[in-house]
Design goal:
Helix content: 25-40%
Structural class: alpha/beta
CATH class of the largest domain: Alpha Beta
Radius of gyration: 27 Å
CATH topology of the largest domain: TIM Barrel
Number of strands: 26
Distance between the termini: 60 Å
CATH superfamily of the largest domain: Glycosidases
């Protein structure tokens, strides 16, 4: 290996860039030099990487200017040790420290600085590594620690004191629950896609049958002005929620507003409603047009009859605005700007192509726009307020019905590059990168999710505020949070713009600190955490998950050795068990090879050999399952569904999840990775209305209720 190669390895190692990885098939991959250079440029902003040794020295000099790290994570009663990068001459010096807790209480004392090498913080030329220790802090939370050096210099860091494990219920009971795609719910009263009242109806039915929780697809905010952008895993914001899930007639203003009622009851409006309810797939554009008409009227009514008179409803709204603060205001500005600019030119899709003056949310042009469009900005805040009311009502209903764990939310791994989260604070994001996954059995070409990654060091410099905000926003309404692609707490697969998905490489993240934040927020919100650990998962990460009290996400399709499927007793207790997920074939589709047929038609297999291997493996899997379930008929039948979920129900895993698609024997899966327009992703509706569905569930789930009592599954 030559000197340049050695220097490049040192540089990538310093930045946490892995130049090799092993895929799910056990094959080792070496990242190309072009990919490494592109990632270094994205992470550092340095474009000339010809001399990697010089780049490393430049970065070390920059790091040395950061005398103290922005964050220190500890457990209660653990001594706090701070690594300091200083000029020579501080050995033996005394330093005053002040610890200000979240509640405003101060503690202070003195500590001695001493020379000590810090493996994670190499020194640049002319600097030395020091350490100082302060006593343990027993108070959980995010606290401010300040060190007062000689000469008046003040160093500040955030001290995160977190429990070692996530929240788990005190009892060791096991729970089962239903999983639904909210938009897919049919209702006699909804407007062509499922809404939060449909969720409430399903929740009531599930709780009466003994379900301990109800799983929902991500409800995160998409784009008001672009209803055709529908993937719940590519949100505009992970901290706000999607207005199309509102039950509009449930809003209190609806019963007060004659104009809204007249429009709603008109023959023309009702005709359009009937048409959307009868669509095979969700017509997002038409649903959005219908809801927007009424929502505009309700907001105008709210302004005229509540905000002007300062009613109790107005005061509650103002309190919500104050609580959510600057982020909510900026969200309203973003939505108003996006709507306005798209109305001028349909090419103004997403803030990266907006006029330059509007790309900086703190700029004078944005402030002037917000002031000139104050009412429109507030309209979008008003929608978030009503989403808050309806989501809060749902969780109260779940607990009031005796559902032990209530709502299960799903958190996407990232935010759309064109959306609010990235516009609000673009600096931590690598905008010319996308995250994804290397090739695996179900995605042989790899995956590119089109979401920009956060740069690890910049996320730390933000003291993890964006990550904390996202967790809090979702855990507020849920008792279980599934973190999509939870390996992002350890590493993410970065794909440089213009490269194929299998040409990416892994970038490592500060796992210990991120996991401690998850644990802290989990306890504060009494929220169980499920980590979606599918695909290429390092063994050490699964161990870290277990030690942190996160539930593993176990898909039965993948739970096998080289020879056979795992037996229920072989599945871990600290897990959620299910047969399939939204990105995988339904049980019927799996059995009939529907996903293989679709991938063949859409040319998603990179080779005939791989397709033939999939066909052979599927045939073998069907044979194994027939033997496991004591079935002789190779045809797909409802009995097969019952037998398999009963079989899986014997697992000791804490949670068992049953998707509605399998209960309804649906053939086609919710989402087919690798497609956009080629397949009706996120549009497929359930075959029965929510009213019919609730009537059928008792009969459909009689077998699950039976094993619930026989095997100790409880609600």
């Amino acid at each position: 290996m030559n000197e340049t190669s050695n220097a490049m390895q040192e540089l990538t190692g310093f930045l946490g860039i892995a130049h090799t990885y092993t895929d799910i098939f056990g094959q080792r991959h070496e990242a190309s030099l072009n990919a490494q250079v592109a990632v270094i440029q994205a992470m550092t902003g340095i474009q000339d990487i010809e001399e990697p040794a010089h780049v490393l020295q430049e970065l070390l000099q920059q790091r040395a200017k950061q005398v103290i790290e922005p964050v220190h994570g500890v457990q209660p009663q653990e001594e706090v040790e701070c690594c300091l990068i200083l000029r020579p001459g501080y050995d033996g010096e005394l330093v005053k420290w002040v610890l200000r807790l979240e509640n405003g209480q101060d503690y202070e004392g003195t500590a001695q600085i001493f020379r000590k090498e810090c493996p994670t913080r190499p020194c640049a030329k002319g600097f030395e590594s020091y350490s100082c220790k302060i006593p343990p802090c027993a108070e959980l939370g995010y606290h401010s620690l300040s060190l007062y050096l000689k000469g008046g210099e003040i160093l500040s860091t955030t001290l995160i004191v977190a429990p070692s494990v996530c929240y788990l219920p005190a009892s060791e009971r096991r729970y089962w629950g239903l999983a639904c795609q909210v938009y897919a719910l049919k209702g006699l009263k909804n407007w062509g896609m499922g809404d939060l009242s449909d969720v409430e109806a399903l929740l009531n039915s599930a709780s009466h049958l003994g379900a301990g929780f109800l799983g929902l697809n991500p409800l995160c905010s998409l784009f008001y002005a672009r209803p055709e952008h529908i993937s719940p895993y590519s949100p505009s914001s992970r901290s706000f929620f999607h207005y199309l899930y509102l039950d509009v007639p449930l809003m209190p203003e609806f019963s007060e507003c004659p104009a809204a009622q007249r429009l709603f009851e008109s023959e023309a409006f009702q005709t359009r409603l009937r048409a959307t309810r009868n669509c095979e797939f969700v017509d997002y554009l038409e649903v959005a047009k219908l809801k927007k008409q009424i929502l505009e009227l309700l907001y105008n009514h709210f302004v005229q009859h509540h905000l002007k008179d300062n009613t109790d409803m107005a005061l509650a709204f103002r309190s919500f605005q104050q609580e959510k603060g600057e982020r909510l205001h900026a969200f309203g500005v973003f939505e108003a700007l996006n709507e306005y600019l798209l109305s001028l030119d349909s090419n103004n899709w997403g803030w990266p192509v907006w006029p330059k003056a509007f790309q900086d949310r703190k700029g004078s042009e944005v402030a002037a726009f917000a002031d000139a469009h104050r009412k429109r900005v507030e309209f979008f805040q008003y929608l978030q307020y009503h989403l808050h009311l309806q989501l809060s009502m749902l969780q109260r209903t779940a607990m009031g019905q005796g559902m032990s764990l209530g709502l299960y939310f799903d958190l996407p791994v990232g935010s759309d590059a064109s959306g609010f989260d990235v516009w609000y604070d673009s600096q931590p994001f690598a905008l010319n990168m996308s995250i994804g996954a290397p090739p695996d059995e179900f995605n042989p070409k790899g995956q590119n999710w089109g979401l920009p990654p956060m740069i690890p060091q910049r996320l730390r410099e933000r003291r993890y505020e964006p990550f904390i905000e996202v967790l809090r926003a979702n855990m507020r309404y849920a008792s279980i949070l599934r973190i999509d692609h939870v390996m992002s707490l350890m590493r993410l697969f970065w794909i440089p713009r213009g490269m194929e998905a299998d040409q990416g490489l892994y970038v490592h993240y500060p796992m210990k600190e991120l996991m401690s934040i998850v644990a802290l927020e989990s306890h504060r919100n009494q929220c169980v955490v499920v980590g979606e650990d599918l695909g290429t998962v390092p063994d050490e990460f699964r161990l870290a998950m277990k030690q942190a009290g996160m539930l593993s996400y176990r898909i039965f399709y993948f739970e096998r050795t080289d020879e056979r499927f795992l037996r229920p007793e072989e599945l871990p207790q600290q897990a959620l068990a299910t047969v399939t997920s939204h990105d995988l074939p339904t049980l019927r589709g799996y059995w009939q090879g529907r996903d293989i047929d679709l991938r063949t038609c859409l040319e998603l297999f990179p080779s005939k050999e791989l397709k033939d291997r999939q066909i052979a493996l599927r045939k073998q899997a069907r044979k194994e399952l027939l033997d496991l379930l004591n079935l002789t008929n190779d045809a797909f039948t409802p009995e097969l569904v019952q037998r398999l979920y009963c079989y899986l129900g014997q697992a000791k895993s804490m949670l068992l999840l049953v998707p509605l698609e399998d209960l309804m024997n649906q053939l086609d899966q919710v989402n087919l990775p690798g497609t956009v327009q080629e397949y009706p992703n996120w549009r497929r509706r359930l075959p029965y209305s929510i009213e019919e569905l609730t009537r059928r569930l008792s009969a459909e789930l009689s077998w699950l209720i039976r094993i619930r009592s026989e095997q100790g599954l409880e609600g």
